[in-house]
């Protein structure tokens, strides 16, 4: 017959858990709170270990083969003693004998950590399995009881539990097989079974200072139909009247002092034990807003009471939920004190900004109306019925879109000139938590005339304009880009200057093919341009004069220790695609990221004696200094103002620029031609870019964006300050140091003479076996 352990690991864990982490008190003797096997049990497997759990932590050196013994009659059983947590375990050196009784003993030599010994020796017995010719059957046993047998001072509202060695057939765990008696009197109560544990919950509190007997009979069987080998009997003595554990709340939803609570919140209290459902009602469970009661429905299930408000709660207000002492457990024990939960509901979202602003005049006819909210909104609530635009009482046709905390109404057609419009966002608009606007948001604006005007741009005065300036016109209404581009020209007297015209937003720009001549008067002419309503603007001229001499270039941006790194990033450094990217004569660093976040090295390599790869965990102080130096250099480049920054368009390819500071309020893209930086070895270029920098890779006849240096200019004097992230397109030849606020990506087959320095994000190198990337010290 196969011999199986009948005390599974889960029973041991339950014993340790129930024993808890009680602290010993000096002068109080420790006790044994439970044993495995329990006292007088039969049918124990011969390969079982014997254990005892104490009421407090014990001194490990006092738990040994002298103080913890196992005997068969008067013969000591050899074995090893171990101690973990609050549990001592005796492991026999060999299997025990079949059908044999054994006695385990813990002597008074066992002491707690305060030096207090057991009050007396603790002894328990058990009998091993018998041999039979019947089928291989392992009978279930009781491995744990609560309270333990012979326990005293037991609480009067105690729930009695028996834990089995295996899952039992639930139908056999009932009031017939599980009984509780006080003497010869049966105690009424309810029997339940979950997992491997049976519970007897008395209908009322037990009487004080009396002996009770709980019994599980052999009518209880496991799921295979095997009965207990023998009845399991537990006796204990109750304590005084004061020994009653009153129910309490162990959790609430929402949590105490919670803020931003959803207006449709169901309030819940979970109790430490089952409660009498009839005592959980609208009288004992209330919700108040200040002194005003909130109407709702109270329900109770399991150990949780819920309050469901009849109507949504009000936004941004404090509420108080209370469970009174009228709520009792199933034995009639009331809460020790009322349980009070205070919380505050989610504040109503507001519209913090509109475009056009309220009462704005001269609004362009093709405007899209936008509203910015104080918090992210539910996009399903920002629709054509909650966000409208009207001219008088007539609805304007259009579409509504939203993203995060911004909603946009885009009219289907241009608005009418010189007309008042009213935009409205109703209380049907809700934030992501379901809280609506407190009141409708209404604002008005007036459109401009359909006749356009224009003023010169950039913002420099009409004299002293740099020779490499981009010039143009800004209109007060949206223009037809085709007629505007065709009608904008630049003249030096009677000579037309070659260049490129672009149109974006409401601005047309003219970029000369070559730098203008110093100290020369030029005229920007516009003819035949039309607005989007097909109105032709009157022809106009704008005259300006270039500076007499080239302005002095800016100073060098001081990278300090950040210049020791070819790559310096904040989150990660990744070389992917399988190619062996090369960093020449510079380090690779990551801060605050750890070395493990630098991946793809190898196949990517660092070349140069003394150069290496470092994360915050192996070069923290040095990397922190370099990171701070990068931040200082970034701020220096972003704040450079001398000479006066030259405003440039987003597209910058196909032109030659002298030294200076070049500023783009938004993004910058290098494509459709090489950007040439022409100057001497000490000249400096600083590019201040409001958002992203993108280069469209080289190799095509008209779709490339390389950066090259002429006239002795050096890459160490070229600095790209990027407001968000930078992308160097595949096949790009790049010059200078990129200092990006977020991340930098380098496409396959690209080369850079300079540094890739990302303040907060990642640096990613994409390369293949045929097309590798390289970063070389400038």
What's the structural blueprint in terms of helices and strands?
Layout: H1 9-19, E1 32-36, E2 41-44, E3 50-54, E4 68-72, E5 75-76, E6 79-84, E7 87-92, E8 101-106, E9 122-128, E10 142-146, E11 151-154, E12 160-164, E13 178-182, E14 185-186, E15 189-194, E16 197-202, E17 211-216, E18 232-238, E19 249-253, E20 267-271, E21 285-289, E22 292-293, E23 296-301, E24 304-309, E25 318-323, E26 339-344, E27 351-355, E28 360-363, E29 369-373, E30 387-391, E31 394-395, E32 398-403, E33 406-411, E34 420-425, E35 441-447, E36 454-457, E37 471-475, H2 481-487, E38 488-492, E39 495-496, E40 499-504, E41 507-512, E42 521-526, E43 540-545, E44 565-569, E45 573-576, E46 582-584, E47 587-590, E48 598-599, E49 605-607, E50 613-614, H3 616-638, E51 646-647, E52 655-657, E53 660-664, E54 668-670, E55 675-678, E56 685-689, E57 693-695, E58 707-710, E59 718-722, E60 726-728, E61 733-735, E62 737-740, E63 744-746, E64 751-753, E65 756-758, E66 763-766, E67 774-776
Parallel strand pairs: 2-9, 11-18, 28-35, 44-47, 44-65, 45-48, 45-66, 46-49, 46-67, 47-50, 51-53, 52-55, 53-56, 54-57, 55-58, 56-59, 57-60, 59-62, 60-63, 61-64, 62-65, 63-66, 64-67
Antiparallel strand pairs: 1-3, 3-7, 4-5, 4-8, 6-7, 8-9, 10-12, 12-16, 13-14, 13-17, 15-16, 17-18, 19-20, 20-24, 21-22, 21-25, 23-24, 25-26, 27-29, 29-33, 30-31, 30-34, 32-33, 34-35, 36-37, 37-41, 38-39, 38-42, 40-41, 42-43
